Amino acid sequence: MKMASVGGSIQEVSFNGRNFAVAADAEVNRKIGGWENEVMANGDGTARLVKTRVPLSIEGLTVEIDDGRGDHEFLQDLSNLKDFFTLTITFASGVVYQSRAQIVSDLQSSSKNATCQVDLAGPGTLVKQ
To answer: How far is it, in rounded angstroms, from Cα 110 to Cα 116?
Structure first.
């Protein structure tokens, strides 16, 4: 018997080993990374396959910002790095993905909600742990 698919809130995320709480209502989209395909027509009616390598991405991740812990500064320091850092994310299903990534969004912290949206991208693929 097939088990039910499970969606929902991100359980946890860590950037370079530092854990962040994720807003329960955040709609997070993930792209595992790898190849995207395009079929291109030829004039004689045949076609060719064009494969383009694409990076992994996580979009819409909204994390809690604790000013006492210096969370906003920590995220900005990661964004300032000239390399990728370790990303680990646990989905509602309990599945954990890990890879190397970098912040690709503007890091604006909401003082009202104590949150910040963090979009990420990286080389290779998200790897199920």
So the answer is: 6
Token pair 């809130």 in the structure block, residue = 9
Tell me the residue type at 37.
N
Instruction: Give the number of other CB atoms < 10 A from CB of residue 58.
Output: 23
Share of the chain above pLDDT 70, in %: 100
pTM for this entry: 0.88
Listed residue (121, 12, 117) closest to 61, CA to CA: 117
Q: Region of 69 please: left (phi>0), alpha (psi -120 to 50) or beta.
A: alpha
Q: Is the distance from CB of 36 to CB of 42 less than 8 angstroms?
A: no
* CB contact at 8 A, 26 and 47: no
Using an 8 Å Cβ cutoff, are 118 and 61 in contact? yes
CB burial of residue 101 (10 Å; 0-12, 13-18, 19+): buried
